[in-house]
Known about the structure:
heterodimer, A: 9 helices, about 80% helix, B: alpha/beta, 11 helices, about 35% helix, globular
Amino acid sequence: MLALLDLSLRQLVSRSRLAIILLLAAVPVGVSVIFRLADTRLEFGEAGNAFYDGLLVSSILPIVTMAVATAALGNELDDRTLSNLVLKPIPRWQIVLPKYLASLLVVAPLVVASGVGATVLSNPDFQAALAIGVALFAGVATYAAVFNWLGLVSKSALAFSLVYVFLWEGVALSFLDGVRYLSIRAYSLGIMHGMDEESFEVFEGRVIEFPAAVGGAVIVTIFFLWLTVRRLKRMDVP
Amino acid sequence: MTTSQADALYVKNQPIVEAKRVSKWYSNVVAVSDVSFRIDRGITGLLGPNGAGKTTLLHMIAGLASTSDGELTLLGEGVRDNPRLYRRLGFMSEHEAVYGFYTGRQFVEFSAKMYGLDPLASAVDRAIDAVGLEQAQYRRVGGYSRGMKQRIRLAATLVHDPEVLLLDEPLNGTDPRQRIEFHDLMRKMAADGRTIVVSSHILEEVETLADRILLMVSGKLAAAGDFRAIRAKLDERPYNLRIVVNDPRAMASALVQMDEVDSVTVEPTGALVLLTRKVNVLRRAIPRLANERGIRLLRVEPMDESLESVFSYVVDNG
C-alpha cells in the first residue's frame, strides 16, 4: 500500500494543481490579513457567518477537495493507467485506501491550515480555531470519499461535483430542512457549532446536532469508500 | 490445499485459456460475438483489423472486462476479480500507460512492489536487462521515446516472471532491431513453458512470431489454429496487381499467356491490372518476364493488400 500511496501523492501534487489549490487556500488568509490591516476584528457574528460558512465551508473546502480528490482515480482512468493497478494481486480496497489517504494528505493540511490560520489572524480564539480545524478536517475526509468515487464513475466528475456542492448543498439546503442530514456542508457546520456553541451561535437553528454531524460524516465516508471499492470490482477497466 | 498443490494438480492438457461461447456487448454494440477457443502453452497470435474485437477479448481474458455472455477461464479459474490469479498473469495494454515522473527503474520497481517481490532489486535488474534498457533506466519515463516506453512497460509486465503473458499490440512504436529482440525474448519465454498471447493487426508481425493464431473479424472468430495452414489459404485468394510498364501492350500479351494469370485489363492510364491466385509465383515471374521481353518495369503494386480484404476473404470462404 505504501508504494501506491507514494505514487498517488506524486500524481496529485502536479505543479499546476498545487498552484491552484494553494491560491484557493490562500484566499481566507488573505481576507483575514485585510481585516487585520484595517484594524477590524472579524467577529463570529453575521460577518463571521459569511466568512466561515459562505467562504470557508461552502466554497474553499469543497472546491479544493474536489480539484484533488476527483483526480485521484479519475486521472488513472483518463491516462489509461488504471489497468496497471487493478491487475496487481491485491484486493481492491488496497487500491482505494491509498488513493483516499493521498487525497486527504494533500488537501487536509492545506484547508485546515487555511481555516485555522485565518481564524487566528483575525480573531485569536483557541476553542474556535480548534472547532474550525476539526470541522474542516471532517469536511475534507467526507468530501474526499465522495469525490474519489465520482472521479471513478464519471468523466464529468468535476461538473457533477459542482452541481452537488452548489445546487444540492447551496440551493436545496436553503429550502428543504431535511436535506441538512444529507449534506457534508451541514456536517462541517454542525461539528463547528457543536465544538464551540458560543463562538458559532450564529449557526444556531440552522445546523444539525453534533452527534448527527459526526455520525453523518463517518457514515457517508465509509459508504462512499465502499461504493468506490465495489465500482472498482465491477467496472470494465479501459 | 495450498496454492502450489493446486497448481501441481493442474492437468497438463487443460487449456491455459478457455472461452466458451463468449460475447461482449456495450448497449447495442456487439464487440465480441459468440467466440469459443482454447489457448495452450507457446505463442498465440491474436490477429485482426482495427476494431475487430482483439482488445476487448484480451481485456476479458485478463479480467479487466466482464463477459456479457459465455464462460472464460484462465488457468482453470475465473479471472474476474480474482487477485490471487494476477500473480501468474502479465498484461500489457496497447496504450502508453506510464507514470511519466518515474524513472524507468522506479516504474519497474513500482510494479515489483505491487507484486510483493522479495528480493526486489534482482527481479528489477532481470526485467530491465531483458528489454535492454540498462543505460536508460535512471532517466524519466516521460522523456522516453515511444519504443522505449513500450520496452519499459514490457519490463514492468515481466518483472514477476508470469506464466501467462497477454500483450496488446506490443510492437507499436518499436524499430526493426527492437522487434527482432522482442521476438527473441518471446520465443525464449515460450520455450521456457510460458503462454504468450500477442495481438496485432499486422499479418507479417504475427507470422514471424506465433505458431497458432486466433483471427478476429468484426467481433467474430474467423479462423483459429495453425498459422501456416491459414496463411496458405490466404495465399490462394485472388489478388489484383497493378503493373506500370513502358510498353503495356507487349506486357499484356505476355502476361495472358501465363497460367498463373486469370485476367488482364488495361486502364485508361495505360497501367495493367491483372487478377491472379498465385501471387507469390507471379511476384517473382513478372520481373523476369519483363527482362526477357526488353520491357521496362516501372511499378508493381498490390491493389487490395489491406488486412481487411485478406480477412474478408477468409471469412467469406471459411
